[in-house]
């Protein structure tokens, strides 16, 4: 199981010289399970992931969306495999069915005039769309178990856990915690995981001024991972106002608080194998 970070930023992409070391693209993380390609979210980082995919021979892709706010889908129109007839792309979302909407409708709507010039119907790959209810276990491939949970975010969001050949990776963004209490649903989802990719948009000091915005802190990520006995925490979904100097300090502070924590950087790849 190989995990690659193609976009680690939240809210909107950043391209200034102060956002070089950690990256400026929005949320996109790929997981390669053997020959199976899975990818979490379609932020601007999915453009680079698509370029990488197009150079390889495996043309089956599962796209798992946490939700459909702009920063998590605005790279999809620039995902080159979607325009390649060799590719089969299965798209999943767990937050829309209860709202009487579908992921196909949402992705089509963002590629509609007057906000975008090219319709989704021009995509020549084979696209399929699955809406489920967060909390379901979804069937993507016989070798991969995918568990899900509902997250605390405006308009809802879904957290995921992938189990493959004895290794486990959790993707838990965007979600807001309640100070002083542990989210039991997330705790159960990430229990014993090899890697937890968690919404660490803010610090504990910043959080009180941003209550109800739908995000969490890196300190809460550490508290969750410790309580769940997870092995590593990827600090993820960096605020666009947090430049390289700020993130360097987060990295130092997080490592001091818990050695299993690190700041996710664009282009970083982690590999996991069965113990």
Outline the structure in words:
The chain is α/β, with parallel strands linked by helices and 275 residues long. It has a single domain (2-271), classed as Ribonuclease Z/Hydroxyacylglutathione hydrolase-like (Metallo-beta-lactamase, Chain A), CATH 3.60.15. Helices cover 19% and strands 28% of the residues. The chain contains 6 helices and 14 strands. It has helices at 46-53, 70-73, 103-110, 184-190, 218-228, 244-257; strands spanning 2-7, 28-33, 36-40, 60-65, 88-93, 126-131, 137-141, 144-151, 157-164, 167-172, 195-199, 233-236, 261-263, 269-271. Strands 6-5-4-3-2-1-14 form a 7-stranded mixed β-sheet. α4 packs across α5 (218-228). The longest helix has 14 residues, at 244-257. The radius of gyration is 17 Å and the shape is globular. The two termini are 12 Å apart. The mean pLDDT is 95.
Short note summarizing the structure:
It contains 6 helices and 14 strands. The protein has 275 residues and is α/β, with parallel strands linked by helices. It has one domain (2-271): Ribonuclease Z/Hydroxyacylglutathione hydrolase-like (Metallo-beta-lactamase, Chain A, 4-Layer Sandwich), CATH 3.60.15.
């Amino acid at each position: 199981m190989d995990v690659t970070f193609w976009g680690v930023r939240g809210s909107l992409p950043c391209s200034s010289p102060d956002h070089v070391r950690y990256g400026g693209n929005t949320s996109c993380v790929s997981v390669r399970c053997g020959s199976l390609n899975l990818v979490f979210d379609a932020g601007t980082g999915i453009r680079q992931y698509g370029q990488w995919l197009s150079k390889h021979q495996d043309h089956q892709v599962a796209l798992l969306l946490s939700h459909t706010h702009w920063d998590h889908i605005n790279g999809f129109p620039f995902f080159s495999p979607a325009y390649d007839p060799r590719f089969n792309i299965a798209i999943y979302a767990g937050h829309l069915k209860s709202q009487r909407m579908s992921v196909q409708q949402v992705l089509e709507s963002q590629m509609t005039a007057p906000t975008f010039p090219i319709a989704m119907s021009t995509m020549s790959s084979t696209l399929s769309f699955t809406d489920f209810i967060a909390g379901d276990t979804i069937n993507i491939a016989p070798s991969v178990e995918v568990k899900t949970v509902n997250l605390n975010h405006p308009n809802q969001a879904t957290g995921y856990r992938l189990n493959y050949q004895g290794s486990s990776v959790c993707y838990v963004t965007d979600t807001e915690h309640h100070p002083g209490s542990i989210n039991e649903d997330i705790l159960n989802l990430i229990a014993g995981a090899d890697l937890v990719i968690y919404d660490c948009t803010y610090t504990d000091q910043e959080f009180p001024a941003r209550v109800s915005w739908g995000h969490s802190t890196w300190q809460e990520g550490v508290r969750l991972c410790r309580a769940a006995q997870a092995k590593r925490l990827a600090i993820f979904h960096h605020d666009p106002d947090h430049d390289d100097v700020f993130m360097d300090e987060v990295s130092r502070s997080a490592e001091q608080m818990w050695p299993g924590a690190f700041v996710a950087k664009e282009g970083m790849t982690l590999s996991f194998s069965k113990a």
